[in-house]
Structure formats: C-alpha cells, structure tokens
Amino acid sequence: MSALGGGSAGGEGINPTASVIALVIVLVSLGIAFALAPATLIPLIGVIIGGVLISFGVHFVPVGGAPAAMGQAPGIATGVAMLAAGGGLAGLFGGAWAAEMGIWVALGAGAMGGGLLMAITCLMVNVVYVYAMGIPAASGKVEKDPITGDTYAGYRSQGTEGHGLPFISYVGGVIGGILAGAGGTLIYLELLSVYEEALPSVLGMTPEGMSTLAVSLAGIFAVGMFLVAAVLTAYNITGTIEGPHDPKFKRWPRAVIGSSAACAACGLVAILLVVI
C-alpha cells in the first residue's frame, strides 16, 4: 500500500505525494470527460462518489478471515473483498431492479439490499458461532461494547484476539452493506444513463432496442468497478478488521483517495467506450 501512504505494515498516515497524484488523476479524468463529451461530466462524478461510498463502507464490515473460522479472531470467516462484493452486489441487484422508479428510490433499494444481506449474514454467523461452535461474542479491540456497554473480558479466551461477532461489529456490517450497496447502485445508474443516451446514436438503433444492451454494459462495468474499489480497500485494511471500533478503521482516508482515483480512471474508460 505504499502508493496510498504507509508500508505493508499498514500505518494510518497519508502519503501527500500519492494523494496529490490521485487528485491529479481524478481531475485529468474529469477534464477529459468534459472536453470530449461535456454531458458525461456529471455521470463521471457520480461514478467517483459511488466508488468512495464503496471504499468507505467496506471499512465497517467485520472480516475475520481464517482466524475467525478457528475461533481465534472476531468477524466473519471470509476475506474483505469477497464479503464486500456480496453485500455490494446484493445492493446493486436491488438498485437495478428499481432503476425505473427514479434515482432516489433506486439508491434506497440498493442500500436496503446491501444492508439486508449483511444483516442476515451477520445473524447466521453468530448462530453458527454460538450454537454450533460454542463461541461467545467477544471483541479483542475494546473492553466494552460502544453501543450496548457489555464487557468482554470474562468471555475472551486466552491466546485469542477475541471471537464471535460482537454487537458493534454487527451494526458495522449493516452500515457497511448500506453504504456499499448505495455506492454500487449509484455507479450503475450513472453508467446506465450514459449508455441509454449514447448507444442508439452510436449503433443506429432505436432506444427500445438498446435497453437490454445498456443494462448489460452498465451492470458489467458497475460490478467491475465495485470489485476494484473493494480490492483496493482490502489491501488498505491488510488482514482482519472488527468494524468501526477497530483501530484499522482510521485508515479509511487512504482507501477513499485510492478508490476515487481508480474509479475515475475506470469510469472514464467505461464512458468513453460509447461516446467517442
């Protein structure tokens, strides 16, 4: 993660030089879009905002990886990118279903889809931990739950960093799913608006005939950019994270900066594909 500031050890500092480079990439992408097709400037800004929401939301998601599967760390026993992609794609599907109802309804549906998937996932994870593995929820980062006030010292096993899924991690997972789902939906909607307007003139077909192609292309690029933002954030987190109370949560500015630059470049390519 040296490109975003800090070495592989994962400090919270931001590299000023890298941040300036990322800002330049964003501005250059916006400038190219405005110069070649001024109408695509607002959609590209929406794509960047969507990437920022995804990157920020992923930091809320409790990920324990392999240690969580063995009861050695709190969180869900999978990787950051996989879990974030699940929540975000569920939101993206919900938002795409509601796309014809307007942007705000679609964003709400996308946020609800991502949040609902994470809520169900976190619930079933705790059911498995408690009733199948006999593991109580105990954080390794804080002594007391910031929301409920429950203490963890009496439930944390020796030699572990905590285990299970504490309530603050559950809430963080739902918030992360909401943000990621809304971000993925926003990217999809912005690309869809560009494709629906540009494809008929490019291919010489009626708007009705281009609907399926526009939806397909917008979905493909939205999923791709979602994974770009999620994987960049996973590299920024470097391992496991319990949620918003984890010290690693403070690294989110680096991931947001990196994801904004990556989504600006990817969004520019996705938009220019049909407007030039």
Short description:
By secondary structure, the chain is mainly alpha-helical. The protein has one domain (44-275).
Structure description:
The protein has about 280 residues and is mainly α. It has one domain (about 45-275). The protein is built from 8 helices and no strands. The protein has helices at about 15-35, 40-60, 65-70, 80-95, 105-130, 165-205, 205-235, 250-275. Helix 2 runs parallel beside helix 7 and helix 4 crosses helix 6 (about 165-205). The longest helix is centred in the C-terminal third of the chain and has 37 residues, at about 165-205. The radius of gyration is 20 Å and the shape is elongated. The model is unreliable at about 1-10 (pLDDT under 50).
Total beta strands: 0
Backbone CA Rg? 20 Å
Taken in chain order, the helices and strands follow as: HHHHHHHH
CA distance, first residue to last residue = 34 Å
Global outline: elongated
Q: Main sheet?
A: none
Beta-strand percent range: under 5%
Oligomeric organization of the protein chains = single chain
Runs with pLDDT <50, length 5+?
A: 1-10
Helix content: 55-70%
Average pLDDT score: 83
Q: How many separate helices?
A: 8
Total domain units? 1
Structural class: mainly alpha
Membrane topology: Multi-pass membrane protein
EC number: 7.2.1.4
Pfam family, one: MtrD
Pathway: One-carbon metabolism; methanogenesis from CO(2); methyl-coenzyme M from 5,10-methylene-5,6,7,8-tetrahydromethanopterin: step 2/2
